UniProtKB/TrEMBL annotation:
InterPro entries: Metallo-depent_PP-like, PhoD-like_MPP, PhoD-like_sf
Keyword set includes Hydrolase: yes
Cross-referenced SUPFAM superfamilies: Metallo-dependent phosphatases
Coiled-coil ranges from the UniProt annotation: none
CDD domains on file: MPP_PhoD
Protein name: Alkaline phosphatase D family protein
PhoD-like phosphatase metallophosphatase domain ranges (all copies): 39-272
Keyword Hydrolase among record annotations: yes
Amino acid sequence: MLLFTACQKPGTTSPVASSEPLHTVAFGSCNREDLPQLLWAAINQSNPDVWVWLGDNIYGDSDTMAVLQRKYNMVLQEPGYQQLQANAKVIGVWDDHDYGKNDAGKEYEMKEESAQLFWDFIGEPANSPRRQQEGVYSSHTFGPDEKQVKVILLDSRYHRDSLARINKVYQVNRTGDILGEEQWEWLEKELKNSKAEINIIGNGIQILPQEQVFEKWDNFPAARKRLLNLIASSGAKGVILLSGDRHIAEISKTTVSGMSYPLYEVTSSGLTHVYSGSNVEPNKYRVGVLIKQVNFGVLNFDWSNNTVKVDMLIKGEGGEVLLKETVSYH
């Protein structure tokens, strides 16, 4: 288990765990609180140092905060999750269902109240500066110098522009934004000032895949392009993307102009239920196969050489490895 220092910088940066390098990050999304909680035993067996919620952590879908609170409490009372909380640092972000409304963006009227419930659920202190910001984005740095991992979590709901849907098909908002200017400025500073060897960027919806017809960054192509350009221009080392939402799991890979290494995205979803549609879905960036069973994600870090080797894993109910990609970062 990692040991965390007591010092905290102002704003949205978490304390640095300086005693030893990070070895295992586990993550997942789409956790319907009234369905069987099948994966906590396998997640705990993976011995993660950090657990990352990637959204739809409950299925709240309500303007009534008492409803969201009750559903959060169901997860908090789950024994397997309590065991995880006792042994791992828990961080995370939301997506639409725990935000409070399906597919919602900045128009959701209860977002300020919902944000406070989210921070309660994730264990954010009552006096934390994060509780005063607009959105639930955050940054967390782990490990000693030269073996640091930074986890940057983006809020892709609170400031997101509207997205129309016609006959269940999402319409592209070509000039629309997702993050809002304050979050963009914060993200740029977090990346450009990062000294980490690995920089993980997580959010609720997929960033790289373009061909799927559901919610994705590519429904806002100007914002997607801005994000990829920012990652490249920042010079941040070892950027890895994490996402949820889709009720499937997959690993995507692309090259971005200005980056000296490939950009990977690991999508892990869902913890309690999966997509019941076609087994075939196009994704020109996919590495390996499409996973359609309950799953969670794991990143294992090997710091034994001058490079850091990262095993990107998708695991199933018994802890079995369903998908694996190994990448070394210099």
